[in-house]
What does this fold into?
Amino acid sequence: MIKFCSLFSGSSGNAIFFRKDNTKILIDAGLSGKKIAHALASIGESPSELNAILISHEHIDHIKGAGILSRRYNIPIYANAGTWEFMKDMIGSVASENIGVFDTGCEFEIGDVCIKSFPIPHDAAEPVGFNLFAENKKVTIATDIGHVNKKLVSYFEMSDFILLESNHDTEMLKVGSYPWPLKQRIAGGLGHLSNDMAGKVACYLAKKGTRRFLLGHLSQENNFPELAYQTVYNALCESNAEVGRDVMLGVAARNCVSEVVEL
It folds into this structure.
């Protein structure tokens, strides 16, 4: 059985738990080690049993607790070379045996889980999303995406479950309080995915067979859960996919543990 749980999701910090039997993986660690440990305990898990921490990119909302967790519980950290180069001075010392480097686009295994990273358009050194394969299931984590294209979406296809970014509402971003350069960054090609684009991606994937969607990495200033959900819900309905029957749709919580999904 696969167990998946978004522990935290948003610009204030991201962390995801994935388990296949005795293989336990944390994807990103963007909050304090203490908060992540408490979140894991709330779903019956312990950081001392983690086999690995996967890092998607070096922004602080994805790496804040990685170093302390690795040092405290002797956990290997896996990232690509570009991310390690920028991240190493930000997370503190990591034991040499706990430094794992993967090549973007190549598959590697951690215990019973096969992992494939894929490049994403974001303003970081070498940012990636992840496909995780276990028990003939494919789980995809796709956030921090500035834009989508056919190549990127091909990595999402045939996912049984996907955590998909739905960062902002375009109109809220336009009229919000952020300074203009920040608005340009978020809406730009290396920024974040809007609710409307998330809806279009979800419709395409639903037609390709994906049945479970979790919207994540919502902006606190330029979005709210009900709006993200309703935007993607409406898009799915317009494409003749009935939510609750044909597909399942949820929204990952920002500051607390979301529902545990079992596949």
